[in-house]
Amino acid sequence: MTEARDTLSQMNDRSREVFRRVVEAYLDTGEPVGSRTLTRALTEKVSAATIRNVMQDLEFLGLLDSPHVSAGRVPTQAGLRMFVDGLLEVRALDDTDREKLDATVGSNSSDVSGLLDQVGSALSGVTRGASLVLTPKHEAPLRHIEFVSLAPERALVVIVFADGHVENRVFTPPAGQTPSSMREAANFINAHLEGRTLSELRLVIGEQIARRRREIDGLAAQLIDSGIAIWDGEDDSSERLIVRGRANLLGEETAEEELDRIRSLFDDLERKRDIAEFLDLTEDGEGVRIFIGSENKLFSLSGSSLVVSPYMNADRKIIGAVGVIGPTRLNYGRIVPIVDYTAQLVGRLLSDRS
């Protein structure tokens, strides 16, 4: 952010205004912005030729780009980053948007995942984008675990917690699993529950497997690893990611190139690659963070932007995150306060329920 402000401070008033107008027009329309368009918008009355010279200078600095020789300019990723860090004017949260988000507070859902699903749907509806909600892990002591074979490459694991909470997850078991090996895996796990949480259980089972590897069916040991990893570890985070509103990014008039990028984005989501890093993106500090294009490690291939904020429990510990993802020309000024408010809302909801 400091670098962006330093660059802006070195630009004269005309260059800053031309740059700001180009970015704002692009974010509004998605189209390249020409010099003649700017002559009608600038505070200072200058010729189109003068504006073209300024735009060429901004292009030389790597802040603007020209898609075609005779076309107008669009901001580069570096230009968008500088705009977001140095010129973005964040709006106050609209009352209508606030009311739609607050409506989730009145939900009768007793299930946290169901409540957060509704929050994600509301966030998607308000922003007209795709929403992401990373739900907190359930860390109550365990009562029982069971594996159920659904198909040769699909299995269900059922976890019953001491507080009555039940979680079901479908996962891909190691090749060659049989009903008997699944029963053996479940029996082994249940023998070591003793009121432990999933995190504690994983450590205990890891020690047991290391000591008794020869006594345990090899496939069952793999199944134990796969089943527990659904909740604790990288795969844990991927299973806790709620995505809503993908259809909002697939309008009928979306350009084919943009459609390809969006399909790539949701291919990433469906495969749930690197989703464990979603929460990591937020842990450098409180508040909303914006990741543009390749800055976004989760979806760098999709040409998308992610606006994300962590939410905390009553102890001010980060336990999850909410965000909105869309094309790089998101309306950042409107999206940022919505994501910020949603994160605070979720934190209050979970703190009240606990």
UniProtKB/TrEMBL annotation:
Alphabetized InterPro entries for the sequence: GAF-like_dom_sf, HrcA, HrcA_C, WH-like_DNA-bd_sf, WH_DNA-bd_sf, WHTH_transcript_rep_HrcA_IDD
Gene3D superfamilies: 3.30.450.40, Heat-inducible transcription repressor hrca homolog, domain 3, Winged helix-like DNA-binding domain superfamily/Winged helix DNA-binding domain
GO terms assigned for molecular function: DNA binding
Entries under Pfam families matching the protein: HrcA (PF01628)
One GO-annotated biological process of the protein: negative regulation of DNA-templated transcription
Keyword list, A-Z: Repressor, Stress response, Transcription, Transcription regulation
Keyword Transcription: yes
Heat-inducible transcription repressor HrcA C-terminal domain span: 115-336
NCBIfam families: hrcA
UniProt similarity note: Belongs to the HrcA family.
Functional note: Negative regulator of class I heat shock genes (grpE-dnaK-dnaJ and groELS operons). Prevents heat-shock induction of these operons.
UniProt protein name: Heat-inducible transcription repressor HrcA
Source species: Pseudoponticoccus marisrubri
Gene: hrcA
